[in-house]
Design a protein that fits this description.
Layout: E1 15-19, H1 24-35, E2 39-44, E3 64-68, H2 74-82, E4 86-89, H3 96-101, H4 103-124, E5 129-135, H5 158-176, E6 180-186, E7 188-190, H6 203-212, E8 217-220, E9 226-231, H7 232-244, E10 252-254, E11 260-262, H8 263-273, E12 280-283, H9 287-290, H10 302-308, H11 316-329
Parallel strand pairs: 1-2, 1-4, 2-3, 4-5, 5-6, 6-10, 7-9, 8-12
Antiparallel strand pairs: 9-11
Helix pairs in contact: 1-7, 2-4, 4-5, 6-8, 8-11
């Protein structure tokens, strides 16, 4: 059964700003907040090829104000922050491979702009609640499974290093400037409004695109690496819970799933969900990717369950079915750039 459209009433009447709000996670969050009665504004730089698109906000239950700007742009951000009760900082560059081929760009998008945003919030709206999205990539290659928040951080690529820097800057501002900031380390997120047409944004949108087109799905290596996958609605719920839970301030939380599946099995489920026309094949790792691969990953989310009252609700099969149905109803995602 497909999940019902998500509504988040916990912030009804609050003024919420979503950075990266025309992208995958940001747009789903903005829509759920608007459906729950929040006043929502989004800011997005619409960095080419990063998946941001104004059409991601189509069908909003209430008007959502859109600003196209860098999140560190004082002129654009001043009026937005002046009214914000909650800032969901979801913006960022997510391609691991691109971070290795253009590391200075990754540094600019994932560290400089976030530090500039933190300075603006500190100056203009220090009482706002800030929730930042980090990534499980900060851990690097797991030393044990499942990975909890006490696991050492040793990123294997520039993206992971930059994401860790941005996360730690957020937590530093919480501690030093007494700001209400928390951070969530996301695992592999999938679902509606994720960009399908560009490789490098994760293996799941590649699998979904190929399955929708009936194309072969290649899985690198032996296909036995474990991944826990999160449907985007579960991530949105966690973001909102972090914003309304006072005990989250200054804390970092893993978001994960009970079910850790092998990559080959994930590919088969995606192929079957789209009708089964895609053949799943095991292929050798490309040299540029194997050097930054982390192996199996499975996150321990018990801290989020204990502090936030959060746990994933949507299984992978149901989530993939809803994802496939969404893209079939919105075919422009298969031709976007």
């Amino acid at each position: 059964m497909a999940p019902d459209p998500l509504t988040c009433p916990e912030l009804r009447g609050a003024s919420c700003l979503v950075t990266g709000g025309l992208g995958f996670i940001g747009s789903n969050l903005a829509l759920a907040l608007a459906a729950g009665g929040a006043r929502v504004a989004v800011v997005d730089a619409l960095v080419p090829h990063h998946g941001g698109d104004r059409r991601n906000l189509d069908g909003a239950a209430a008007p959502i104000a859109v600003t196209i700007a860098d999140i560190g742009d004082r002129g654009a951000m001043t009026p937005l922050l002046g009214e914000a009760d909650v800032v969901f900082n979801v913006a960022g560059q997510v391609s691991h491979l691109e971070s290795m081929t253009d590391p200075l760009r990754d540094l600019d998008l994932n560290v400089r702009s976030h530090l500039a945003l933190l300075e603006l919030v500190r100056e203009l709206r220090p009482g706002a609640v800030v929730v930042h999205t980090s990534t499980r990539q900060v851990y690097g290659r797991p030393r044990y499974l499942p990975v909890d928040e006490d696991h050492p951080t040793a990123p294997v690529d520039v993206n992971g290093v930059d994401k860790l820097a941005a996360e730690q800057l957020h937590l530093l501002y919480a501690a030093v400037h007494d700001m209400a900031i928390s951070a969530l380390r996301l695992t592999n997120v999938y679902g509606p409004r994720q960009s399908l047409m560009r490789d490098g944004l994760g293996f799941l949108p590649v699998f979904v695109r190929r399955a929708l087109r009936g194309e072969p799905i290649d899985v690198y290596g032996d296909g036995r690496q474990l991944r826990d996958c999160l449907y985007v609605d579960d991530v949105v719920r966690a973001l909102v819970l972090a914003a309304v839970t006072p005990d989250s301030v200054g804390q970092v939380f893993n978001l994960g799933h009970d079910d850790a599946l092998e990559l080959a099995e994930i590919a088969r489920i995606v192929a079957a969900g789209a009708g089964g026309a895609s053949e799943v094949s095991l292929v050798p790792w490309p040299d540029d990717l194997v050097r930054i691969d982390i192996g199996s990953f499975w996150g321990d989310f018990s801290k989020a369950k204990r502090v936030l009252g959060w746990a994933p609700e949507i299984g992978f099969g149901a989530g993939i079915a809803a994802t496939i149905a969404f893209y079939r109803e919105h075919p422009w995602y298969l031709s976007s750039i």
